[in-house]
Amino acid sequence: MAAKFDILLRNGKLVDPRNEIEARRDIAIQNGRIVAVGPTIDGSAELDFDLEGKVVMPGIIDTHVHISRWLGGREGHKMMAMAGVTTALDMAGPIEGVVELARSHGAGLSIGCINYIRPGHTVGSVNPGSDELTDLLVRSQRAGAIGLKILGGHFPLSKECSARVIRVCGEHGAYVAFHAGTLETPPPKPATMAEACELAAGHPLHMPHINTYARDAGVMGGEEVIATLAAHPNVWSESYLAPFNGTSAVCSNGVPESDATKRGVVLGGFTPNQQGMAESILAGWTHVHKIVDGTVVLATGREGYDAWMEADMQTGCSFMVNPPEPRIHLATAKKSNGTFCIDALATDGGGIPRNDIVERGLPLVRMTALSIADFVTKTSVTPAKMLGLQNKGHLAVGADADITVLDMERLVPVLAIANGHRIMENGVVFPRPSRFITTSMGKDAIEAAGMEPLLVEPGTWLPSRV
Ligand SMILES: [Zn+2]
């Protein structure tokens, strides 16, 4: 009797660099796992897809998104599924809201989160000591987070304290990322990132959105950050391809809460207060995140101003601040040994409308600036390694059934499978609770929230490359 599977993917071109496969293969899925891969598989399935002419890759892992109440928001889940993403790391939290939205607005992805260090919110001051930081880390882990985020660009800490955070996380085997910038050295400059790399003092560190530091210096800025990263092999990095950034549009006491927002307003020639913010939106400079049909779009001018007012300012905004040269250079640059200068291609997306790994990444493949295997390496293989997800980033028998299928003619994702479930087909999303990436410390909180935990051992993140 022929075997019966949950899902069969037939005739697609499998691109699986970790297992050195780039060939036509059938793939069978059962109970959330890959159970067979071969030139032809006999049997039938509940869902049987003929993927003739399509590329089949291990599910896209976006190591930098925002899906919290502070930034991004609940729409991010649907938006990521539409973009073919199957796993994502929320790069700020707060963890409680990320967990809640992953349950209530999930699209079946595997979600992880690192919790922000924000004076007045998660810590008491801009210079908390080791005990307070350890306490925050443990509380964050018990709530489901895998580590901490230093938001130097938005809510900077002292230099000394930033170094302390990285050390505390290193000692606990926790994940840590640093939006570079301190009270002493504000971003965004290549020097800000260099300082952050020094403050890591050899501990593992995720340096997010490298674009930020190269932005003003064009191609030379790209070269400068690449040289800094090459000198710090303990630092993992990602860059993104979108022309615009994403930050908070919240004002309190008449001024934008986030330093990044203030800088964006000033860059457009406006005053960094609520009035200046309003003027910058009406003038078409600041783009407000507006919800349309359960997804977020950018709106400016009168439409943007109305959206900002309607949301009572509790939304995000974006500035067109990323010139093309560093974006393309950082996505494609390789070292002399053939490995990438920047480890991963990410988006800083989620609820910020730039889930563009496929949309802007595949044009680089069409231009032969990246091979299709390069693309898969930067968007799935390496991100899986960064997050310590042994069963993701490849499609051998036994791997998690996380798969993204690409239409190379239209440069769009046409099918996404996460944890053995179809989560998106031709732009239609199938909502279901997320799976939450956490440690044994966060297992209870995730189960209590009604989600299946995906347990990862602390200390397996950000492995040393030294
Ligand atoms: Zn971010």
Q: What about the largest sheet? A: 9 strands, mixed
What is the C-alpha radius of gyration, as a whole number of Å? 21 Å
Q: What is the CATH fold-level name of the largest domain?
A: TIM Barrel
Kindly report the average pLDDT value.
94
The total count of helices amounts to 14
Low-confidence stretches: none
- Which molecules are bound besides the chains? zinc ion
Percent range for β-strand residues: 25-35%
- CATH evolutionary superfamily of the largest domain: Metal-dependent hydrolases
N-to-C terminal Cα separation, in Å?
A: 52 Å
Features:
single chain; 466 residues; alpha/beta; Urease, subunit C, domain 1; TIM Barrel; nine-stranded mixed β-sheet; 14 helices; 26 strands; 30% helix; globular; binds zinc ion
How would you briefly describe this protein structure?
With 466 residues, the chain is of the alpha/beta class. The chain has 14 helices and 26 strands. It has helices at residues 76-82, 95-104, 130-142, 159-171, 190-199, 211-214, 218-230, 259-267, 274-282, 301-310, 324-332, 357-366, 372-386, 443-448; strands at 4-16, 21-30, 33-38, 44-50, 55-58, 60-66, 85-90, 110-117, 147-151, 175-179, 205-207, 235-239, 247-248, 251-252, 255-256, 287-292, 295-299, 316-318, 344-345, 349-350, 403-407, 412-418, 421-425, 428-429, 435-438, 452-455.
